[in-house]
Design a protein that fits this description.
309 residues; globular
Length: 309
């Protein structure tokens, strides 16, 4: 996502400058997303989804079940093609949407911090209703659908997607998209906002002047704080997983809304059910934000320097 963690510069008395969005930055966003999900991102995603869908499991049980579904490759279920398709496209959507919304907010007199918050929320919504809804659903299907142990032949992921489309149409392959939208909106609004607050705190502690770039380690620390603290919306993520899960449970409603799904989780698991998978999601949030904010800024600066040579 290669999102700059620095607020848009606003000169008092002058109109805010619009951030430039170029193809190099979009390429950086895609590259960082691909790196994030192919390294630690997908294993965190698989563990988180396993715990959120099977809320009676503990961490050890989740690891054992995932390993039984394919060994080490079990921790990368849904990576190809769904996570790669999502990773290579969602960064561009976020950058375009967030830049436009932030610029409009600034021209309306909103503070840079609030403008960044609105930009992150709007960008997250745009992601969900373009490529993320479908891809997130198919990743969850891959992680939660029944797979025979051993060497038995399995249906390909494309065959499963085709079956769902034939049976339920476009609505079927976008099941839970509203929950995805709510998650992405709150995810990136809080990640960007909390990362900015963490940066300001680091500046005050270190005595760094406003406008002076933070060091790489300071950016990584601020990004980790912003990403880690953004798991406050875990109940939304558990609802999203339950809506998209392929597990069959007695009494489980067939067609769920966000409200009916929340009711089902409350009735079967109580309050703690809404926080299953929080630990791996904490790790995922930190890793994603480090890659997208700190790593994205560093790679973007490197690419821009190459372009000026």
């Amino acid at each position: 996502m290669a999102i700059s963690s620095e607020p848009t510069a606003v000169v008092p008395g002058a109109p805010p400058a619009k951030k430039k969005v170029n193809f190099a930055n979009l390429g950086v966003g895609a590259a960082m997303n691909m790196f994030e999900v192919t390294t630690l991102g997908q294993p965190f995603e698989v563990i988180k989804t396993q715990l959120a869908a099977n809320r009676q499991d503990n961490m050890v049980t989740a690891f054992k079940k995932i390993y039984q579904r394919g060994g080490i490759t079990g921790f990368y279920q849904g990576l190809i093609p769904w996570a790669w398709v999502e990773a290579s496209t969602k960064g561009a959507v976020l950058i375009f949407a967030a830049s436009e919304i932030e610029y409009l907010a600034l021209t309306s007199g909103v503070s840079p911090f609030s403008a960044g918050l609105l930009g992150g929320m709007g960008g997250g919504l745009a992601q969900a209703y373009t490529t993320m809804g479908f891809c997130t659903f198919m990743k969850t299907v891959e992680i939660t659908r029944h797979k025979s142990a051993g060497g038995a032949a399995q249906k390909s992921t494309m065959a499963v997607a085709s079956e769902i489309y034939k049976r339920e149409g476009i609505r079927g392959i976008n099941k839970g998209v509203n929950a995805v939208a709510l998650r992405q909106c709150t995810n990136w609004g809080s990640r960007l906002g909390l990362s900015r607050l963490a940066e300001e705190s680091i500046r005050k502690v270190r005595g760094t002047e406003q406008g002076t770039p933070l060091s790489a380690w300071e950016k990584i620390a601020a990004s980790a704080i912003g990403g880690g603290l953004s798991i406050w919306n875990q109940p939304i993520e558990v609802i999203r997983v339950e809506m998209q899960s392929q597990l069959k449970t007695a009494g489980r409603p067939e067609k769920m809304t966000i409200a009916s799904c929340a009711r089902w989780i409350w009735e079967t698991n109580g309050l703690k059910g809404f926080y299953r998978g929080s630990v791996p999601r904490f790790g995922l949030g930190m890793w994603q934000t480090i890659c997208m904010v700190a790593g994205g800024d560093a790679l973007k600066d490197f690419v821009n320097k190459l372009g000026t040579k």
